[in-house]
Every structure is written in structure tokens, then in C-alpha cells.
Amino acid sequence: MNISSVVIYLGAGADEAALRAALQSIDGCEFVACEGGKAVATISAESFEGEIAAFRAIEALSGVEKAMMIYSYCELESDIAAVSTNNGEQIMRELEEMDASEIKYGGKVRV
Question: CA dist 58 to 7, 16, 32, 79, Å?
Fold first, then answer.
């Protein structure tokens, strides 16, 4: 289970009631509070991918200027089990022995 909290900054003239309804329509998302152009919501998801999908859905809502994940908790037992059954130890040894300049990052850094 992954749990996170999100602070949502609303654009000028955003409808708080509409935001509340939209948040509650996102799977695993719960509206917490709204005041002064900021709202707080929580996300509960079974996987990291589900957590990120809910976060992206929040970012895409009408009236949302910016959303920031403030806290995130992830249970790692299933990830650890997957690594131990899928040659994870061998992969870790190979990565430790590899020169850092050979490792290519394929993600997208957002600041």
C-alpha cells in the first residue's frame, strides 16, 4: 500500500466545490481541506504506478495551478520479494561492479 499527501495550489477563480468533487472521483484520492487557494488531498494506491497515476490526474484537473507531493509512504515488501526471485542479487552485484560512467539514466528530472 502506498499513501501520500498532496498540496494543491488553485488558480485564480478556481471552484473549490468542483475541485472537491473532481478529487473524490479519482480512484484512491480523498479530499482533506481547502483554504486560501490551497487544498490538501491524500492518495492511497496499491502500487507506485497507481500513486503516480492519481497524482498526474490531480495535476490535470481544471483549476489546478500546481500540485506538490509532500509526503509519500511505500510498503516495499512486494518489491523486495520480486527482486529476490528475479536475480536481484546478481543485478545488484553487477551494478556495484560497473563503472558509474557506464550507467545511463533514462528518466526525466523535474525540479
Answer: 10, 14, 14, 26
